[in-house]
Amino acid sequence: MPLKDSLLALLVAFLWGAQVTAVKIGGAELPPILMVAMRYAIMALFLLPFLKNVKRQHFVPMITIATITGTLHFGLLYCGIARVDASTSAIIYQLSVPFTLVLAFALLGEVLRVRVLVGILLAFGGVLVLLAKPSESESSIGMLLVALAALAFAIGSVLTKRLGPLNPVALSAWTAVISAPQLLLWSFIQEGEQWVGVYTASAQAWWAVVYTALSGGLLGFGLWFWLLGRNSVQQLSPYLLLVPLFAIVISQIVLAEMADHRLIIGGALTLLGVTLCQLRLSRNFVFKTRGSVRQGTTDE
């Protein structure tokens, strides 16, 4: 992979890692569901020109995927981060990887190798360590919300694979346009009385909203799609492992969160498990699915 692409992939991992801290900052003053609704509203303004890049038969799948990966996923995620330390939420969210692999096995017929099964068990074990004894600033409900957000993302990812191929830029545009009003309605029903926070929020909270929309959202995903067009998923996937590490480091610096032994042990187990799930070895392999066998270049 060219050095420029490697540096851009590193930048994407940093932008996405920093987004957890931004959500934590904004969610301290703004209702979390309303915050993500505003995030998507800002993104929609920039993505409107790409709405036309969709085939008619893809419209219903777009709505389904947008509702799950946009509204449900981010709504749960922001509500969870509001109740949990940024470092802990970044680790628990890594369950999206084993969730995706399990769903791909159940719905797409992909085979789970022993290494991947071990990785899944380690990842869930690490999260159980975090759930066993939450810190004073955390709640078990918040952790479960982040885990459910990871599950929603995994469901959306598998549906995208099953219902696709879909234009990724058009999907981002439709997700923003569909999710913004859905989240606004959800916020009105659940957070209506908290909307007064919009009038009292500091500039720091508003900058956090803008960051999640422009930097973590538009720029991060724009660069990622561009990199996917130039490089294989196998080359890029290791950089995704850096996202939780950046999230933990940035939250420790900006939010002064303390890393106790529970976070270290649980985080180490989870990240080791995710690494095993995503590890690619440079050798020939046979990738098996139910009823099909095809040649590849890694052990997955």
TrEMBL record:
It is found in: Membrane. Keywords: Membrane, Transmembrane, Transmembrane helix. SUPFAM superfamilies: Multidrug resistance efflux transporter EmrE. It is a multi-pass membrane protein. It comes from the Bacteria. The keyword Membrane applies. InterPro entries: AA-Vitamin_Transporters (IPR050638), EamA_dom (IPR000620), EmrE-like (IPR037185). Residues 7-131, 141-276 form the EamA domain. The chain crosses the membrane at residues 32-51, 63-84, 90-109, 116-135, 141-159, 171-189, 205-227, 239-256, 262-281. Signal peptide: none annotated. It holds the Pfam family EamA. Belongs to the EamA transporter family. This is EamA family transporter. It comes from Pseudomonas petrae.
